[in-house]
Design goal:
Blueprint: H1 6-9, E1 32-34, H2 36-41, E2 47-52, H3 62-75, E3 80-84, H4 88-100, E4 103-109, H5 115-123, E5 127-131, H6 135-148, E6 152-153, H7 159-165, H8 167-176, E7 182-186, H9 191-205, E8 214-220, H10 225-228, H11 250-259, E9 263-267, H12 269-283, H13 293-303, E10 312-317, H14 325-331, H15 342-349
Parallel strand pairs: 2-10, 3-4, 3-6, 4-5, 7-8, 7-10, 8-9
Antiparallel strand pairs: 1-2
Helix pairs in contact: 3-4, 3-7, 4-5, 7-9, 8-9, 9-11, 12-13
The chain binds ligand F0G.
Ligand F0G binds at residues 60, 62, 85-89, 156, 186-192, 241-242, 288, 290-291, 318-319.
Length: 351
């Protein structure tokens, strides 16, 4: 059967009616990849799976929320949407708005989003404004615009975004046939961990699963307001997607961690890069640096003896590595150049 996108796949759990015009790029249905080589390399006796959200139409998990936010905006008669973004939300908002025939306005921190993401928003014809400020400042501005002008906010403060994103949890349970013991995620604006927890609870209440995972979120150490218990005015990390100092869903993310007996912790940029290399080199999955924060956290917790033998563990890899190819080039070995003769080739290959 043709995959219909997350709204049709999970309609009974979502706030849509027969009158809602469904705007979809057939997002969702992403791979849940068993990753035994990574587990073995870090010495963890666990059953590990990576949920690769880079396989969504615009290359990140944002598409799950955007299909619903844009469909509902269209149902309400909106002609335009607006968001602040560290890159992925703007790419997704631009693509779904184009598909719906709506305008998208995006505010981004100048020089702090990757070229891959910027190029997506540009080619989908969003109106892009780069501000001399960070994501948190951009979010304050767009919130006020949406309150005062005829344009719908599609950041995760829009409740439909998290409703759509919770389908990531449904898919994990459908793919495994049970709920994992632990679910790891990177945390930026803190919407996704909130959404996954909603999804797991919905499935539990519907009798589709008989246990709930511990929700475990990881922030980058230079952008870890929740862990440090205070707003970070000037967040810093190479993981630009999660360079956020005052998350919108701060309290909800704390509640998800507390209710599930999980936690929110942090990892350094070095730990993120180590995990990023391992995911690509050991499992063949290319994610962006921010996406590796959850796996970096798993490696960190494993060293403390956190897991029980045989634990089922899922990490969400939130975005595709091609979005930040520049970063992977800067940390990879340069390819060798050879003349093209067979002799030289055989020598270079080491045969
Ligand atoms: N990973 C990636 C690749 C992201 O783009 C984001 C957030 C996160 C993780 C964190 O998710 O905010 O729900 O805690 N990106 C937003 C954006 C902020 O504007 O694209 P979160």
């Amino acid at each position: 059967m043709k995959w219909p996108g997350i709204i049709e796949a999970y309609r009974e759990f979502l706030p849509v009616t027969d009158d809602t015009p469904i705007v979809t790029l057939e997002e969702g249905g992403t791979p849940l990849i068993r990753s035994p080589r990574l587990a073995a390399e870090i010495g963890a006796d666990i059953d590990l799976y990576l949920k690769f959200e880079g396989a969504n139409p615009t290359g990140s998990f944002k598409d799950r929320g955007m299909t619903l936010a844009i469909s509902k905006a269209k149902e309400d008669g909106a002609k335009a949407v607006i968001c602040a973004s560290t890159g992925n939300t703007s790419a997704s908002a631009a693509a779904y708005s184009a598909h719906a025939g709506m305008e998208a306005y995006v505010l981004i921190p100048e020089g702090k989003i990757t070229l891959g993401k910027l190029s997506q928003a540009m080619i989908h014809k969003a109106t892009i404004l780069q501000i001399d400020g960070n994501f948190d400042e951009a979010l304050c501005l767009v919130k006020e615009i949406a309150e005062n002008y005829p344009v719908t906010l599609v950041n995760s403060l829009n409740p439909y975004r998290l409703q759509g994103q919770k389908t990531g949890a449904f898919e994990v349970c459908d793919q495994l046939d049970y709920a994992p013991d632990h679910h790891f995620l990177p945390v930026g604006n803190a919407g996704n961990i909130t959404a996954y927890w909603m999804g797991y609870k919905d499935y539990y209440n519907a009798g589709k699963i008989d246990s709930l995972p511990k929700m475990i979120g990881f922030q980058a150490a230079g952008a870890a307001p929740i862990v440090r218990g205070k707003i970070i005015k000037n967040p810093k990390t190479i993981a630009t997607a999660i360079r956020i100092g005052n998350p919108a869903s701060w309290k909800q993310a704390e509640a998800a961690a507390a209710e599930s007996q999980g936690r929110i912790d942090m990892v350094t940029d070095d730990e993120i890069v180590t995990a990023y290399r391992m995911i690509a080199g050991l499992e063949g999955i290319y994610c962006e640096p921010a996406s590796a924060a959850g796996v970096a956290g798993l490696i960190k917790l494993n060293k403390t003896g956190y897991f029980k033998s045989g634990d089922k563990v899922v990490c969400t890899l939130t975005g595709h590595g091609l979005k930040d190819a520049d970063f992977s080039l800067t940390i990879s070995e340069k390819p060798a150049s050879i003349s093209g003769s067979m002799d030289e080739l055989v020598k270079a290959l080491g045969f």
